[in-house]
Amino acid sequence: MRKTLRKWLKSGPKLGIDHIQLVGLSVVASGDVHWTRRVTWFLFLCCGVGLAIFYIGIQVSLFSAGYIGVTVHASSNTTTHLPAITVCAEQKYDFNNLHRLWLQYRPGSAMPEDAEMQLLDVANLSLSDIWTRGGYEKKELVRRCLLGPGTTCEDLGSWSSVFTEYGLCFTYTGGMTRLDGPLYGLYLQLNYSRHPFGQIFKGYKIAIHDIRSPAAFRINDGFKCPVRNEKFGCYLLRSVAMQTISQLNRRNAPCTSVLGYDMQACLSSCVYSEVARRAGCRLPYMDVSWPECRGRKQVENALNVAKEQIFSGKFNMSLCNCPKPCTYVMYTEHGDTTWNYVRTSTVKVYLTSIEKHSLVETYTYVGADLGGDIGGIIGLMLGASVLTAVQVLEVITSRSSKFLAARMKTGTR
């Protein structure tokens, strides 16, 4: 068996360096060429190899750096979905509703300033019950809502009640538009007039946000629509530009491609879980799996913890494992606020363009570019190609087989 293998290794062709079809290499390897010509070609080959190695090193470092480029795409849409709109009153309670609730459990007595806290113990109600029954009704806050001429908001979307730090609020989702501009966006007419004499109504807090983002977490990023001296309402024009961002999942800027993931929802769950853990219960607007706070003592403690951790900025958001989504919609708002000469407040939210703008991150230098540049510089400096590499491999294989055959012959002796 050993003899047969040695014979097979020895039977292969004996290839020398002159077998490699590389410009100048045969001249250097030939003994019949004058030494000056051999030295000249040797220097040329050394310079070519050195320059090729230097250039390849630069290109490899460029590839390793992973430089990013952004490509902008624009496409027309026949119908564009509007973002969610959340409307809150600056005060938590409708005075009349809260007063009616108080008289139900304390008939004939004057309603104190801390009626909310007293009702927690007197009536054994939860805070969410008090916010719901003592809060505002949607029909009393939002008197009119249109989506373009002749189309009511309810024709295309729907309103839903939601708890925030402002108490009971209302979120509109499902709005769509076919055209851009103020005439074809969302038109809200806000007019609250049920407060009694001497009870000041401060105005509204409105947030524009992604449908998947929790309103309770985004309401603080919203804008105010104040009421001036109970006589003049605000007039708000809010233009919204929508862009779809697609970024690469890189080591120094990680992101997640989980379908339906929203970073704001993840952050709110993280923050609210920490507040609930410290307080031992949750407030109505915290969408976490903790029991709701009951009784004045628990509620006041939870409110203090929330104020300290959330609104005073003590909680460290970087502790939450909430990476950015790799693809998300970014809303950029611009607006102006003036005063209406009537008590009614008007809010218009519209799109600056119905074109879909997408910003896509891509690597500016990929593997195909690296391979093409390496092949080009080797071909330019040395006149080599992939076939040259095959010839080099043939020479190495031939020399290795002859060497092994000689070693095996020596071993048999």
Automatic annotation (TrEMBL):
It comes from the Eukaryota. GO terms for molecular function: ligand-gated sodium channel activity. It is a multi-pass membrane protein. It is found in: Membrane. The chain crosses the membrane at residues 39-58. One of its GO terms (cellular component) is plasma membrane. This is Acid-sensing ion channel 4-A-like. Keywords: Ion channel, Ion transport, Membrane, Sodium, Sodium channel, Sodium transport, Transmembrane, Transmembrane helix, Transport. Belongs to the amiloride-sensitive sodium channel (TC 1.A.6) family.
